[in-house]
Amino acid sequence: MGCSASTQIIEDENDPFLQNQRVNDVIEQSLQMEKQRDKNEIKLLLLGAGESGKSTVLKQLKLLHQGGFTNQERLQYSQVIWADAIQSMKILIIQARKLGIPLNCDDSKSELFQLKRILMRVKALDFIDAGTAGGSDFLNDYVLKYSERYEMKRRVQSTGQAKAFDEEGIEQRRKQMSNSSSNPNDLDIEEEEEEELTEDNANVDGNNNLDFQEISKNLNESGNDTMFIKKDSKHVQQQNQKSTRVPSVTRITKKQIAHAIKELWTKDKGIKQCFARANEFQLEGSAAYYFDNIEKFAQSNYVCSDEDILKGRIKTTGITETEFHIGSSKFKVLDAGGQRSERKKWIHSFQGITAVLFVLAMSEYDQMLFEDERVNRMHESIMLFDTLLNSKWFRDTPFILFLNKIDIFDEKVKKMPIRKYFPDYQGRVGDSEAGIKYFEKIFLSLNRSNKPIYVKRTCATDPQTMKFVLSAVTDLIIQQNLKKSGII
Ligand SMILES: Nc1nc2c(ncn2[C@@H]2O[C@H](COP(=O)(O)OP(=O)(O)OP(=O)(O)O)[C@@H](O)[C@H]2O)c(=O)[nH]1
Ligand SMILES: [Mg+2]
């Protein structure tokens, strides 16, 4: 009779060793799963100089893979665009004077004269809900953007070289700032407007303050669609000789402001001339779009369309993270603020990046940085790309280069010779293809490694073309990731 020895281990459910072992197994299993998930997760980092179009690329990804924008975003942009539209037209008026461009609206006999006066007296912030526009982030950005008083501060902040500048000038400005109210309404643009009002103020008596109290009282009652301002006292003087010393209050509506902006935009030749020289100062890239559509933005409770949001601009501060599921892959897209003061935060997001998407604003070869108006934007991007591409952080990280704002570039090269800013450029004026190849070559020549750089020409505000570009790019990144993880 055969005999076989068999041992049967009877598991004791109460054995503490066994219980421990089971817990460990579960932990090990979940760690393995997490590892696998991390391997499949794709981290895409959007980098580039300020205003190059990084967040616009992210918006296109949201449109494609996240069902579009939320109602809150639509409301936010309608507030921001309205404020930017008003300020942008004021900037054109003020800059025209600085550049010596005669304006039709400065001629008191012109029908545009009164419209200009209305616009210059309007305070954009009185017409918007700053909370909906983005709260303190919005206000900070607004003050920095529209106050010339902050120009020096911006520059010092961006270079950290206070000593290299006229310290006396800084000190003077600091004094000016500390003497002035911290109300964000108290911007230089409004100061220009105050200058305009000086003569008017000379005509009125000491009731000025009372008048302004009334303005704010009325504002509270009227909501954001209407604002009360002092009526042009010279105008009052002409109309009513008896009441020259008493300022009266007149009601200004969003509709009237929109009308003023539209008329100035379409009828004042000086405004158009000044706009054509917008590379000599800082103006919102989408200002023309705001002016063309100003009546739409003036409608009460207007909610932005997808196109408006793509054209609108909210500067990114810090780094935002957005997750998408594209096919079977999970994408984490990191969008970083591109202005100089934002870049010191970048390093925190450099680890574990699958691919870097560098966005270059091609059209900005003739523009200066917002942070430092002595530095050409294209030069800044070249320097930035060189540093990132060849940094130890991205030794094995593929780079995708978006030659963005190609729509503006195509138009600009017809009038603005590239050679004026890049003397070794040999192409002829208006040859957009030669211009693109020239800049592409400069960027590719910076590569001191063997890794490939994938180049795409983009117009980030155009959903049709971006759909194809982004689909090709995400496919490419997925393939790269699979290769890297040894799956293919
Ligand atoms: N016409 C045109 N405008 C563009 C294009 N790409 C971006 N813009 C506009 O350029 C402005 C700036 O774009 P953003 O995406 O905010 O730039 P950003 O790189 O995120 O800027 P920061 O957040 O400051 O780093 C917005 O008004 C966009 O609508 C483009 O290809 N063509
Ligand atoms: Mg951004």
Q: How do the strands and helices of this protein lay out in sequence?
A:
Elements: H1 16-40, E1 41-47, H2 54-65, H3 71-98, H4 112-121, H5 130-133, H6 135-146, H7 151-159, H8 167-179, H9 188-203, H10 208-222, E2 226-230, H11 233-239, E3 249-253, H12 254-267, H13 269-276, H14 287-292, H15 294-298, H16 306-311, E4 319-326, E5 329-336, H17 340-343, E6 355-361, H18 377-389, E7 399-404, H19 406-415, H20 432-444, E8 453-457, H21 463-484
Parallel strand pairs: 1-5, 1-6, 6-7, 7-8
Antiparallel strand pairs: 2-3, 4-5
Helix pairs in contact: 2-21, 3-13, 4-12
The structure holds guanosine-5'-triphosphate and magnesium ion.
What can be said about this structure in brief?
It comes from Naumovozyma dairenensis (strain ATCC 10597 / BCRC 20456 / CBS 421 / NBRC 0211 / NRRL Y-12639). With 488 residues, the chain is an alpha/beta fold.
